[in-house]
Design brief:
Length: about 450
């Protein structure tokens, strides 16, 4: 393990969810629901297996072929809907199905949308900011969009002459990128419908995702990071290492500051050092006789990674920078420099504290066993553990502030210098107005 931001990126093996076999039983897709409660795994049996957040098998349901009785298709990609109640499944037999699975376990499963295509569907993404839009790539080189509110409606976003091998969406959901067999990476702004080839990658970009930067890797043993315009940011060259084979799958953590990339018998973890403004290889996790990692998914709260292998093994790993115990009542898990999960040990309830500015959270403190205070270089964060609501406002403190939580919805901060009053804007999760007053 390598040192990052003064802490180690720690990856700990948790459990096996599905045993490997002596032969090829490829795990074709893995995805987490946005609320972190469900994990979906598409196995070689063409069934979708659903697990809870701890990896306990809960239920499964079969996928359907385009033509009844056909059994030669495979699942190519799978994504949960932003509302956690639907799963989109892209298949090699020229179709994307959307299943309604419900909010709870063992609810009736039904197909509510299907988009038949003229060629095999190869990849897919569902931006969490776009409830009713699914983007997918085809073997004939087209990238298309399917509309949830229009049951059979899909249309072309753009067409190329090269097989689409991968697709990913930007963190804000406004753009997508697609990787192609001819090594090209194309970006499209979904609102302006502007398409541009941003880079000619050094290999076929089978592993492609978008976080702080765009990450692309393939069969030339090179991992590359680009900005949104295709400008080279950084490159990791493993061509001199005979143990490194083809990079096959990748997924960023929720903050976009770390990315896991699958290879042969191992996976790599890269983390963006916000102080040095550069990427670092922080961990290489080796798994003997695992063979290729074909599917990989990072839990939406950043705390777990699940991998799927060529031989059918599905495995869960705990990942964090550090864990601390507070008062014997709380566990604080730092899953990235800007993101902390606070867990109540007696109930298991959790809340997420994340800096929307991407700044490193340097200090945390819990008041009244309910309110969590976090500080970055430029902001202050307040989280209510009972409601999981979060507020972040600009702040440069002296370290001598005092905090008053006597009101359940307002925090008063007493500062010994000038009077400063600020009230945050109100995005979806903000619940606090923070008043900074001069002490008398």
């Amino acid at each position: 393990q390598r040192r990052v931001h003064g802490d180690y990126m720690q990856i700990k093996y948790l459990k096996n969810l599905n045993k490997a076999v002596d032969g090829m039983q490829k795990v074709s897709a893995i995805c987490w629901s946005l609320n972190n409660k469900k994990l979906a795994v598409a196995k070689a049996d063409r069934n979708v297996h659903l697990y809870d957040e701890n990896g306990t098998a809960m239920e499964k349901f079969p996928t359907k072929p385009t033509i009844k009785g056909q059994k030669s298709y495979v699942v190519r990609a799978m994504q949960f809907s932003p509302d956690n109640q639907k799963i989109a499944i892209a298949q090699s037999d020229n179709i994307v199905f959307v299943y309604k699975i419900g909010a709870e376990w063992n609810e009736k499963k039904s197909i509510i949308n299907k988009y038949e295509q003229s060629s095999s569907v190869t990849c897919m993404c569902w931006p969490q900011q776009r409830q009713n839009e699914i983007m997918f790539g085809l073997s004939e080189g087209k990238v298309r969009i399917g509309y949830i509110k229009k049951q059979y409606k899909s249309e072309s976003l753009y067409a190329t002459a090269s097989y689409v091998v991968s697709i990913a969406c930007s963190p804000d959901g406004n753009s997508i990128i697609s990787g192609h067999l001819d090594h090209s990476i194309i970006r499209m702004n979904l609102d302006k419908k502007e398409k541009v080839q941003i880079v000619q990658h050094s290999s076929i970009p089978y592993a492609l995702d978008w976080g702080v930067h765009i990450m692309a890797a393939g069969n030339d043993q090179i991992v590359s990071f680009y900005d949104e315009n295709g400008g080279a940011v950084q490159k990791f060259d493993y061509t001199s290492d005979d143990s490194v084979k083809e990079f096959t799958a990748a997924n960023f953590n929720p903050s976009g500051e770390s990315v896991v990339v699958g290879n042969f018998n191992k996976f790599y973890l890269f983390t963006y050092n916000t102080r040095r403004k550069q990427w670092e290889e922080t961990t290489v996790k080796k798994i003997e006789n695992y063979y290729s990692i074909n599917a990989i998914a990072w839990k939406k709260d950043g705390s777990k990674i699940v991998t799927g292998s060529l031989c059918g093994s599905v495995d869960m790993f705990d990942v964090c920078m550090k864990k601390t115990n507070v008062k014997g009542k709380f566990e604080m898990t730092y899953v990235s420099p800007s993101q902390v999960i606070v867990k109540k040990l007696d109930t298991g309830e959790r809340a997420m504290m994340k800096s929307n500015t991407g700044n490193e959270i340097t200090k945390t403190k819990i008041y009244r066993d309910r309110y969590v205070l976090g500080q970055t270089a430029d902001t202050i964060l307040l989280c209510d553990l009972e409601t999981s609501k979060l507020s972040e406002v600009p702040w440069r403190g002296s370290g001598n502030e005092k905090y008053d939580f006597s009101s359940p919805s307002v925090c008063m901060i007493y500062k010994l210098s000038l009077i400063h009053i600020s009230e945050p804007t109100r995005p979806e999760r903000i619940s606090y107005a923070v008043f900074c007053l001069k002490k008398k």
